[in-house]
Description:
- This protein is α+β, with helices and mostly antiparallel strands.
- The chain has 2 domains: about 1-40; about 45-175, no CATH class.
- About 30% of the residues lie in helices and about 30% in strands.
Amino acid sequence: MKKWSSDRWISVVAIIASLGTLFTIIYQTKIFRTQQYASVLPYLELWNSNSDDSYRLILFNNGIGPAFIEEVKILYDDSIYYMDPAVFTSEVIDPIDSIKGMGHSNIKVGRLVPAGEHINLVQVIDDSLNAQKLRSWFSGGDTTKVNIPEIEITYSSVYGEKWMIQKYGTDRPVKLE
């Protein structure tokens, strides 16, 4: 058996140290990438805000990054409507007797919801009758309704990660892919 020289031992130790350094760099890169993705994470939530004479369906971005709207759909009576809640309200829920005094903001594919911002999707202020109409549809306050509209919003982060939030589905965004 041939003895190893000190040069050979030093070479083996150098290779092992280089491999350790390589694995450390790969691990640090993975941690850095995870930190980058987390630093721009959007976190959309749908909230109801109501009082006796007012109602608002609000979309909040409680994340630390912007949300890019990819898709908005409403599931109702075994149908899928690719429209935002304001259009759905006026065209599907109450097309003949539209809700008087309803304010709204449309959300469409491509819209940006900045971090820390909110959008009043539909609202009625200072009108108890019409506020009750909206409340019964979007907050589940009317227990006589068998089927209430379920809102699904798919959105993405700056890095293209896709998420979905559902009103009356999940309580928090679900990561897709």
